[in-house]
Amino acid sequence: MGFHISGKGSAVEPPTNIAVLPAWRDALSHVIVATEWEFTSSWETVKNSSLFVTNWMDALREISPDSGAYMNEGDLLEPNFQQAFYGANYPRLYELKQKYDPTGLFFALTAVGSEDWEVQVTDPLPYSWNNNGRLCPRSS
Question: Where are the domains of the chain?
Answer without folding.
Answer: 2-137
